[in-house]
Amino acid sequence: MSSFEPLLYCPNPACGKPDNALGSRFCEYCETPLIYRYLWAVGSAAAQYREEWVGDRYAAIAPQIWLDTQPATPPFFPEDLPEAILPYLKLYPLQLHIPQVYGFCPLGDQTQSANLLLLENAPIDGKSGTLYPAMLDLWSEAPPVRQVYWLWQILELWTPLIEVGVASSLLQADNIRVQGWRVWLRELYADAGLITKPDLQDLGYHWLTWAGKVPPPLGDRLQDIGKQMRRPDADLSAILPQVNQLLLELAGQLPLRWRVAGLSDSGPHRHHNEDACYPTLADLSQDGQKSKTPLLGRLSMVCDGVGGHEGGEVASQLSVESLKLPIQALMAEIADQPDLASPELVSEQLEAIIRVVNNTIAAQNDQQGRAERQRMGTTLVLGLQLPQSVRSEEGIESENGHELYLAHVGDTRAYWITPHYCQRLTVDDDVATREVRMGRSFYREALQRRDAGALTQALGTRDGELLRPHIQRFIVEEDGLLLLCSDGLSDNDLVEQYWGDFVVDVLNGEMSVEEAVQGWLNLANEKNGHDNTSVVLTYFRISPEKLVLFDPTQLPPESSEAEMSRASQALLYEEESSEETDSGDRPASSPWKIPLLLIGVMLVSAVVGFALWWQLASPGSDSSPTPLENID
Predict the structure, then answer these.
(1) Is 431 part of a structural domain of the chain?
(2) Nearest to 571 by CA among 377, 311, 359, 374
(3) What is the three-class DSSP state of 487?
(4) Residue 38: in which H helix or E strand, if any?
(5) Which domain holds residue 433?
(6) Domain co-membership, 239 together with 278
(7) Distance between CA 361 and CA 2 in Å, rounded?
């Protein structure tokens, strides 16, 4: 029996007794949440360390799995970025599937030291410190829809990995790990040292091996696709639609139900709420969940305004209201089409919609002469469950292929939560992320910049042609919670630390979705409290158990979305006199102000809807996103 018992140090620098035994969730002295940061140590040299200390900081708990016992202290960074790590930096937006560079651990004395690469966000269970299983280890027991979903993700990763010279990472079976539905690479392998660079034929060889373990008729269809990949003239653009069709066919055979709720709160220290979200309790009456409103349950949004309460409040509200109509039009247009709309087409249309809304806010800025930091804007995270009809080869039609599209701009976030894991689905648009993507800095090093969290893009702050919305497509094939939230909740990693306190009770029916949303808000106000907070939670259920009912009288009443500050109304209508402004008093809003606001929003939505119609009616655009952006 080993006597190796590492201690984990509290991240609170003011803690009087920071050392804690492994297994504790909170510091025994100051009750600060402890950080378990397991790292993948790259290379054969790292595999030699087992149950011992490395560098007086890292605990080697298993071959190549190290625990940083001082997670609040930045790791070691060499002065020059090694060229070998550039693929990790450039692929940073794909952190759902790709580990990230954490830092280096010097080995040996200072004169003859070797720097050993450490990766964070590796496929290591944060509770047990063990690697998640290899895909092939779970292949035979995985349901067909998950098998095809894994293969779809591998195909989507192929092009961005080819572009940075690490496609061989997908050709080593033990390197492909899975966490539920998610494909997750253990590390990246360079193609440079190979005699011939990997191509689609090489991937097709492995594909046929995997497909050979799947019984017919699914196995036959997968093998046919694999044979196409083995041809010298194989074209990925011809392969992807076939796999997408098969994936949606299988997903469409599963039942899908949902329940959604959202709340927005100004927080304990703010007088104005610059956040906005959809749907809120105002949208969900007592029988609202049974409403036939096309968007209810399909669309969820959170926006966090920037530019001060006068501007941020207007921008976030305007964004939420302006997006509804064109997205409803998009859903109707796709429903009328006889063929499946590809993920690329849907992504293009969502980008077009977001750019039009962006330009609506930007035009308001221009009208009011707002420049640089005075320009109002808003972040956005949007979830759309798109119910496309799917017809199988046997002629069986399903009404819903279980597609979930996520769009985001800024630092509002989306998480997918099950009883077993919490997966962050979005990557913030901030300075730290930009520095990593450009290959200029380690992420942990970039976080030390004073402007690390400054936004690099938001809706309304510049012309839509310069905006780069991130669009992703997922398949809902398991019970889970889609959590959208502003940084009032996500700051300080609250979601990562406390997700387990909510998910089991909701999925077991012991807590309603509405109660869970209120619980998240209470947590944000208690633990953060420095900002407004908005939360929208959608419970997607595949299994047959009933969803828990909800009594709306359990929650406090929510203020109307249309109740805006006097200053915010003035930004739209410019009717606040100088006398009212100088007096410092806040007169009551006139009864006709709110109807005017709603009419204004309706007019904006109509413009956006027309723009969407124009986009759909026009020939295909040349500005389609690259494969790397498709899975960003």
Answers:
(1) yes
(2) 311
(3) helix
(4) strand 37-41
(5) 257-283+297-389+399-548+564-578+588-617
(6) no
(7) 62
